[in-house]
Amino acid sequence: MKFSCPFFAFLFFILTTTSICRADVPEPQVIRKQLLVALEKRSLTDSLYKALTNEPNKTPLLTCYLGVVQALKAKHAWNPYFKVKYLNDAEKTLKTAVAGQPDNIEIRFMRFSIEHNVPGFLGYTKHLVADREEMIKQLNRKHYTTADESVVRTIIKFLIDSKRCTPHETETLHKQLAALK
């Protein structure tokens, strides 16, 4: 098969365009750090929102990060209509992420942490028990999926601090945390 110069130019264009689009979406380790900053920095929230929204091939984890960013947009919005709109979007997006990878401890943690922090009267706390139970199950199995040791430590500390665990679960979590150190 003979290829012409325009074919290689076209192939090069497609490959570089694809990598340029992917360059807008950082790796999970970078996104995790950016999310912490985005809690207080609206401009970073907006740029993450744009990058994640425009990503055409979202993995369940990237979908989850988009849901977290939508919740952060709700936090930063001053208009009550947009607060509720972004929370609704976040809830739907996180549901999609969980459906795409139900045993991913990081996805479950992200949804749990958002639902834990949203005021209960808003009705966005439907998955707290199921997410807590799934995270405990995955921690007991030492099945952390994409989460590295620092993320696992954060998850365990958050679960303990949330006071949403049973006394037995809390005791087990303390033991697991001690074993990680």
From TrEMBL:
Signal peptide: 1-23
Highest taxon above the source species: Bacteria
Keywords, alphabetical: Signal
Record-given protein name: Secreted protein
Organism, as annotated: Mucilaginibacter terrae
Lineage, opening ranks: Bacteria, Pseudomonadati, Bacteroidota, Sphingobacteriia, Sphingobacteriales
